[in-house]
Specification:
The structure is a single chain. The protein has 339 residues and is mainly alpha-helical. 70% of the residues lie in helices and 1% in strands. The protein is built from 15 helices and 2 strands. A two-stranded antiparallel sheet has the order 1-2. A hairpin with a 7-residue loop joins strand 1 (76-77) and strand 2 (85-86). The longest helix is centred in the N-terminal third of the chain and has 39 residues, at 35-73.
Amino acid sequence: MATSVRATTGGSPPPAAPPLAPGSGKPPSGRGPGWRSTLYRLDIKAVPYVFVAPFFLTFAAFGLFPLIYTGWLSLHRVELGGSAQWKGLDNYTSLATSEFFWNALANTFTIGVISTVPQLLMALGLAHLLNYKLRGRGFFRVAILAPYATSIAAATLVFAQLFNTDYGLINTALGWLGFDPVAWESSKWPSQIAISTIVTWRWTGYNALIYLAAMQAVPQDLYEAAALDGASRWRQFLSVTIPSIRPTILFTVIVSTIGATQLFGEPMLFGGSVGISGGSGNQFQTLSLLMYEKGWVTGALGQASAIAWVMLLLLLLIGGVQALISRSNRKRKRKKPGS
C-alpha cells in the first residue's frame, strides 16, 4: 500500500494540510493581515475587557472617585455651600486633640466588643446544635435567619420600646424581680449594652448559618474516630469542630469587627431625637455618627472626610491583621507534615 501511494505521488510524501486558524476551524486565507484577521484579533483581545467594563466603570464612579474625592476634601477646610481652603493635615491633627473623636473611637470599640463576642459565641452554639439531626431542623435553620431579614429600622424601634426607661418591658421585668429601673438611654454602659443587644439579635443567626456550612464540611471520620476514643460531644466540639472551622471563625471575627466599626443605624435610631449626637452626653456616639454629625449637622465636610479616612485606615489595619494570621496558619499547616 505504501509503495502504491509513493508511485502515484511521484515518490514524495503527500503535502501537509494547512494549519487551522485559532478558534475558527478553518485554514487561514494566506492573503496576509486583512480586515478579517484584524476583527479576529480585536475579538480575542478586546471582548473580555468589554464584558468586565461595566463593573470597573461602576466601581470607578461609585467607589474610586468618592474615595479619592473624600481624601482631597480631608486636606481642605470645606463648609457646606462654600469653597475649599487648603489646610493640609490640620483636620487630622485636630482629630488627634478632639475629645469627641476619642470618645467616639472608644464607644465604637466597646460596643464592638460587647456585641461581637456574645454574638459569635451564641452563633457557634446554635450551629453546633443544628449540625445534629433534630426534628424540624430545616425550620430552625430558616427561623434563625429571620432577624437578619428584618430591617434595621424596624428592629431598632422595637428594641427602643423594650428598653424604654419609663414603660419598657425590660424595666417592667426588672421591677418584678425587685430591681430599680435602669436608665437605658441616658446612661453610658446601659445604652451601649442595649445597642449591642440589637446588633447581637440581628446578626447571630447569619453567623450561625456560616458556621453551620463550615461544620457540615468537616469529615465525619474525625467525629467517628473521636467517638471511638470515648470523646463526648463537648470534647468533639472543642477538639474536632473548632480546629476544623478556625478559618471560618477568623473570617466572621474580621467581618463582625468591620461591621462594628461602621455601626450607624442602630445607635442613631435608638437615640431618637439625640441619636445623631449619640445621646445627650455622647455616651454611645460611634465614629460613623460623629462623621455624619460633622458633615451634615455642623457642615464641616473636611473634618467629616478626615474621620472617614481614619475609619478606612482602621479597616485596612484589621485586614492586615487578618492577612498575617492567615499566613501564619498556612505556614503552620505546611510545617506539620514534615515535623
